[in-house]
Amino acid sequence: MVFFFAQSLSILEMARSVSRIFSGFRCFGSLPFGNTQLKTQCPSVLFRTTSERTVVQVLPSIFSRKPRDFSLPNSSWGEEMMRLYNYYNSQSEEATEGQEDHGEQWTRLPSYNRSLKYATGGVYLSKIIQSKARLFTRNIRDPGAAFEYVVFFRQDKQRCVCVFQAGHLLEGPPGHVHGGAIATMIDTVTGTHASLLSAPVMTANLNINYRSPIPLGSTVLIESTLDKEEGKKKFILCSVTSTDGSRVHTEATALFVSISISHLLRG
Ligand SMILES: CCCCCCCC(=O)SCCNC(=O)CCNC(=O)[C@H](O)C(C)(C)COP(=O)(O)OP(=O)(O)OC[C@H]1O[C@@H](n2cnc3c(N)ncnc32)[C@H](O)[C@@H]1OP(=O)(O)O
């Protein structure tokens, strides 16, 4: 669809259009950290400053069908978010460079805005989910406006840690994060955790105790641990704390039940 539209424009008009389409996507390579993987993911930065020939060379990667991984840094990530991302990411890099991974390192979990489509290659879900469906936590294009987060997993400890920066659109009480947004993030982290144990799962029960408000714009840690498994039930514990651990914001327990895909087709 995007490609068809672009064919009817001149190259430069096309470049401007695509640039606008991708306007929410900042160039990771301009940020002060040296992850080469990030630098390869922002070809649109060349549009305004290079010749037509270069633009043409760049276009194929623009129209790549590779989905955006939202768990990678963008320009809205603050200092604390970046510090923690770099901390956990450096430990997960060791796992890939090291000899053998026995689950003793953190693994960064990629995050897409149409999780099931990408997880299944789109074959199944393209038939049953409307084309405009997007994952709730990844559907706001303006970087930093809502849910900015990355989840890491440690298999040996059965533990997830999520670094979450709460944007200005998540306001509940003045200057603080809405309880529903906090619940959403707890559901997301514990649900991701339960899915790693045995996907697919659905949330059957979520109990939340709000202990102290989370300032809007701040970065917090959301940690989940496996409490117990009973057949198709997974019980997960979760806490939301300040990044230094000194302040407990929220505590929760969650129950996930394994389902079969046919469960989702019952309507
Ligand atoms: C990448 C991002 C990840 C994000 C993750 C987000 C996940 C979500 O938000 S899911 C959306 C919200 N959840 C839902 O809509 C679920 C709606 N509920 C359902 O579909 C069903 O009730 C479901 C799937 C939970 C359970 O149904 P079903 O598979 O038939 O299980 P069922 O046989 O009734 O119960 C299985 C066991 O779970 C227990 N159980 C079920 N529901 C509950 C509950 N609410 N509380 C406590 N126990 C429960 C049952 O007692 C039973 O226990 P046991 O095996 O010991 O007898």
UniProtKB/TrEMBL annotation:
The keyword Lipid metabolism applies. CDD domains: PaaI_thioesterase. Gene3D superfamilies: Hotdog Thioesterase (3.10.129.10). Pfam families: 4HBT. It is found in: Cell projection, Ruffle membrane; Cytoplasm; Mitochondrion inner membrane; Mitochondrion intermembrane space. The keyword Membrane applies. Transmembrane segments: none annotated. Its EC number is 3.1.2.2. Keywords: Apoptosis, Cell membrane, Cell projection, Cytoplasm, Fatty acid metabolism, Hydrolase, Lipid metabolism, Membrane, Mitochondrion, Mitochondrion inner membrane, Transit peptide. Belongs to the THEM4/THEM5 thioesterase family. This is Acyl-coenzyme A thioesterase THEM4. It comes from Ataeniobius toweri.
